[in-house]
């Protein structure tokens, strides 16, 4: 996987979390994921096709998504309900869209599928591909979350 | 979502589970999913783009995937490990490929992203789209599993 893919997804995440939820997301150092280290309680996943095939996922703990969405909606969010799943799906969609826009300016034409949201205590995500999965940990004042990007080549 | 989408995915599931795992999958009546009824322990998800955008998911209980893969591999599978996740990813990929081949013969050009596998006790899956999610329950001698298909239009 071309490392030039990483920054568009990293920057898109910062932009979308800032724009949608008025939260500053501070990226840690991206790393190649070995094993199933990203454990979370709610995840958004979106498939990407075109000049390359891949997936983007974003995984939150229940505490961090409750805090981020409470900040976004201006009301206390408690529990992972339909509104939370819709918001995670929308965040996933927007990060994919923002990153693909930047990548298209670099000459990479990519399309996105519809997002899927997983909820369940301590689930893990594995991207099945011969290409590496890049994990980007983010910190916020409302708790951490993880973005993963995997492309076939 | 066009109902002509359903049979290619239903038949692809039967074909792939038969070919890969030597297991007869018996489809129940497809229905429009309301809420998060499909709870499972391991799921494969793949995004689809092209003439329509969608996702396919297949969700197993731990007991059913252990029994199906034990039958497939000829050895007792216990627990959801890397081999199980790879097999679920491969099954997901093959169902998508077989269904897309049939749909292309009907004039629908579709591409697939890479599969993602979720593991975690009792997770739920929500496809985020304005289109309905069609659920197809399957029974086998090794336990049930669920296929879901969602397309934007």
SSE arrangement:
Two copies of one chain form a homodimer.
Chain A: H1 6-21, E1 26-27, E2 31-32, E3 39-50, E4 54-60, H2 62-73, H3 82-105, E5 110-112, E6 116-127, E7 133-139, E8 145-151
Antiparallel strand pairs in A: 1-7, 2-7, 3-4, 3-5, 3-6, 4-8, 7-8
Helix pairs in contact in A: 1-3
Structure description:
2 copies of one chain form a homodimer. By secondary structure, chain A is an alpha+beta fold. In chain A, 34% of the residues lie in helices and 34% in strands. The first copy, chain A, is built from 3 helices and 8 strands; from the N terminus they run αββββααββββ. Chain A has helices at 6-21, 62-73, 82-105; strands at 26-27, 31-32, 39-50, 54-60, 110-112, 116-127, 133-139, 145-151. In chain A, strands 1, 2, 3, 4, 5, 6, 7 and 8 form an 8-stranded antiparallel β-sheet that branches. In chain A, α1 packs across α3. The radius of gyration of chain A is 14 Å and the shape is globular. The interface between A and B is large, with 43 and 43 residues. β6 (116-127) of chain A pairs antiparallel with β6 (116-127) of chain B.
């Amino acid at each position: 996987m071309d490392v030039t893919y990483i920054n568009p997804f990293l920057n898109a995440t910062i932009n979308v979390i800032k724009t949608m939820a008025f939260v500053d997301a501070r990226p840690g150092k991206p790393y190649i994921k070995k094993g199933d280290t990203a454990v979370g309680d709610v995840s958004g996943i979106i498939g990407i096709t075109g000049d390359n095939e891949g997936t983007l996922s974003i995984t939150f703990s229940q505490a961090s998504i409750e805090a981020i969405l409470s900040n976004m909606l201006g009301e206390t969010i408690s529990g992972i309900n339909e509104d939370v799943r819709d918001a995670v799906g929308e965040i996933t969609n927007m990060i994919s869209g923002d990153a693909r826009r930047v990548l298209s300016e670099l000459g990479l034409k990519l399309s996105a599928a519809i997002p899927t949201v997983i909820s369940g205590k301590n689930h893990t995500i594995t991207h099945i591909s011969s290409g590496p999965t890049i994990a980007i940990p983010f910190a916020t004042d409302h708790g951490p979350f993880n973005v993963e990007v995997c492309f076939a080549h």
